[in-house]
């Protein structure tokens, strides 16, 4: 059997960390692409580092690279000779994509093309399987539930860029017979989620408010509904997609949705804090019923020019073809995230106090 070697773009992100854990456990050599940064950006994967001086059998490697640099991507793929590529790198923040639309298109849309072209230039169409990190944002304004046959209606520069990534993956599969697949993944979160996505922003704020370090949580659209699952379950789905004999496109989600308001309630409940909602629209507040103190307030700065109101997966195909079902419930995930943020925020406070001399 040929040795399995994975190349993971976006290895320093949330999903990059979870898929690295999974692939190393399955015996793969894992090569990650990281960007040059003026500050450390590898915190999520540092625990996988193996010192070549102390290890004979190093299986985790990092390379500098960027989705906007074709020559770099071609060289890396030539050097690594991956049997599987997981293309997870992206400017992944929807609201930021309204501020940086051209860069988002370059990294997320043309970046996907660059990898597919690299595979073709290197004549690796039959030896390398390709996974594209597609997204439920493709469905955008199309009402739920959404599955593989639901029409796309993207609502942000991010989603439009990802639409190109989706279709160029389908096109290279059909044109060149490549094993190239899309995972159309609904929102998935974890303690490793970036701090500016709504779930992590909420769990961090709840921890900081609970520890007396923050007054209140400022939030945008409380009514938006998402189908939230746990990242660890979703990277298992990515891997299963690439193990199929035939490539294809798969929706991964839980089949249940909740509102941002529900997520706030569940997060405060994890520290035994009940929230009473008062007012409507921009004046809506979340209040501690015992003291009357405002713990949550709406700030219109977090509203998006065009919003995605309701995403809810119909994951039937993934269940039937991949045998994939998510294991972690929303309530379990919220508790895990809040517990982790209580530790993180407490450690930060301790560090600040130690340095305060
Ligand atoms: P993150 O934002 O946590 O990670 C994105 C990764 O891409 C980071 O490693 C980042 O590097 C890297 N990256 C960004 N721009 C470039 C670039 N120009 N060149 C090289 N690397 C770059 O995202 P997630 O882990 O949450 O998501 C992984 C993928 O899945 C993304 O493509 C995302 O769009 C998609 N997706 C995510 C979903 C989710 O709910 N999490 C749902 C559906 C799709 P750095 O650390 O240096 O910033
Ligand atoms: P999303 O995730 O846009 O779905 O994209 P995000 O957590 O940013 O927003 C979810 C919903 O919450 C609303 N919201 C807020 N969002 C943020 N970030 N900050 C706030 O203060 C806030 N208040 C309310 C948003 O308006 C939205 O409706 C994520 C990313 O991981 C994408 O890369 C991925 O493709 C999709 O999930 C599936």
UniProtKB/TrEMBL annotation:
EC numbers for this chain: 4.2.1.47
Listed Pfam families: GDP_Man_Dehyd
SUPFAM superfamilies: NAD(P)-binding Rossmann-fold domains
Gene3D superfamilies for the chain: NAD(P)-binding Rossmann-like Domain, UDP-galactose 4-epimerase, domain 1
Entry's Gene Ontology BP terms: 'de novo' GDP-L-fucose biosynthetic process
GO terms, molecular function: GDP-mannose 4,6-dehydratase activity; NADP+ binding
Residues annotated as domain NAD(P)-binding: 7-337
Cofactor(s), names only, from the UniProt record: NADP(+)
NCBIfam families tied to this protein: gmd
Role played: Catalyzes the conversion of GDP-D-mannose to GDP-4-dehydro-6-deoxy-D-mannose.
Family in the record: Belongs to the NAD(P)-dependent epimerase/dehydratase family. GDP-mannose 4,6-dehydratase subfamily.
Protein name: GDP-mannose 4,6-dehydratase
Organism: Pukyongiella litopenaei
Organism taxonomic ancestry: Bacteria, Pseudomonadati, Pseudomonadota, Alphaproteobacteria, Rhodobacterales
């Amino acid at each position: 059997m040929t040795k399995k070697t994975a190349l993971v773009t976006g290895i320093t992100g949330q999903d990059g960390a979870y898929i690295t854990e999974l692939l190393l456990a399955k015996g793969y050599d894992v090569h990650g692409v990281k960007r040059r940064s003026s500050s450390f950006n590898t915190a999520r994967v540092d625990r996988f580092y193996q010192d070549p001086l102390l290890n004979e059998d190093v299986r985790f490697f990092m390379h500098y690279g960027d989705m906007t640099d074709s020559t770099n991507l071609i060289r890396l793929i030539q050097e690594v000779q991956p049997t599987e590529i997981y293309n997870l790198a992206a400017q992944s923040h929807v609201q930021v994509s309204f501020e940086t639309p051209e860069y988002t298109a370059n990294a997320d849309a043309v970046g996907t093309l660059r990898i597919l072209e690299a595979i073709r230039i290197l004549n690796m169409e039959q030896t390398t399987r390709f996974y594209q990190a597609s997204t439920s944002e493709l469905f955008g304004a199309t009402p739920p539930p959404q599955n593989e046959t639901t029409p796309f209606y993207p609502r942000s520069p991010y989603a439009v860029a990802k639409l190109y990534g989706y279709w160029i993956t389908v096109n290279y599969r059909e044109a060149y017979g490549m094993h190239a697949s899309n995972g159309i993944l609904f929102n998935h979160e974890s303690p490793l989620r970036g701090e500016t996505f709504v779930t992590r922003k909420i769990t961090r704020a709840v921890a900081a408010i609970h520890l007396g370090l923050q007054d209140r949580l400022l939030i945008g659209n409380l009514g938006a509904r998402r189908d939230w699952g746990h990242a660890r379950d979703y990277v298992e789905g990515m891997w299963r997609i690439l193990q199929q004999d035939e490539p294809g496109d798969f929706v991964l989600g839980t089949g249940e949705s909740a509102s941002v308001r529900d997520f706030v309630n569940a997060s405060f409940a994890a520290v035994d804090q009940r929230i009473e909602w008062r007012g409507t629209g921009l004046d809506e507040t979340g209040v501690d019923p015992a003291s009357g103190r405002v713990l949550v307030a709406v700030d219109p700065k977090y509203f998006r020019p065009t919003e995605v109101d309701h995403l809810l997966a119909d994951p039937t195909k993934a269940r039937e073809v991949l045998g994939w079902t998510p294991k972690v419930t929303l309530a379990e995930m919220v508790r895990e995230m809040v517990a982790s943020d209580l530790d993180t925020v407490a450690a930060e406070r301790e560090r600040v106090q130690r340095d305060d001399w």
